[in-house]
What we know:
This protein has helices at residues 3-17, 25-31, 50-59, 92-100, 116-129, 134-148, 154-163, 167-179; strands at 21-24, 40-46, 62-67, 71-76, 83-89, 102-106, 109-113. By secondary structure, the protein is α+β, with helices and mostly antiparallel strands. It has two domains: 1-114, Beta Polymerase, domain 2 (2-Layer Sandwich), CATH 3.30.460; 116-181. The protein is globular, with a radius of gyration of 16 Å.
Amino acid sequence: MDFKVTLQKILTEFDQKGVRYALMGGFALGVLGIPRTTVDLDFLVNRDDATHIAQIMQQIGYECAYQSENVAQYISALKIFGEVDFLYAFRSSALAMLNRAVEKELSGKTIKVLRVEDIIGLKLQAAVNNSARFSQDWADIEALADCYKAELDWELIEGYFSLFERQDLFQSLKRKALETK
Length: 181
């Protein structure tokens, strides 16, 4: 997958249609300075924009492989464009994540990326929902916490861990991040 070409095509269309989005997942980690191998792009998008997203993705050559009220997955027959996944924001917590997204520069283009705290929250959710993912997601969480420890809103992160009843993991994460020099 050529991430630069794919992002340029998608983001140009998102900007024209006013799609509310934020990059998340493995590629977002790279944008945030945490090297991570990934094979797709992942976005959090406002569910109200789902129709625009479907039109955009089909217009640029993607087929919808799966769609529900919560997610959509688009795959291109052309390897250069690969797979793009969308998580639909419609609950207040996910909409708040979208509103908190930050702008980052990537190859001369401004892209919205979820805040580190929100990526940690989504990584925690993925790890809790699928234990087979725990090792990779936890490694990502630790890397983000270590890199951004001084800037993090630890109360926001603690809220995510409390939501999933993982306060012990939160205490361990915070202690390790703040003790590391």
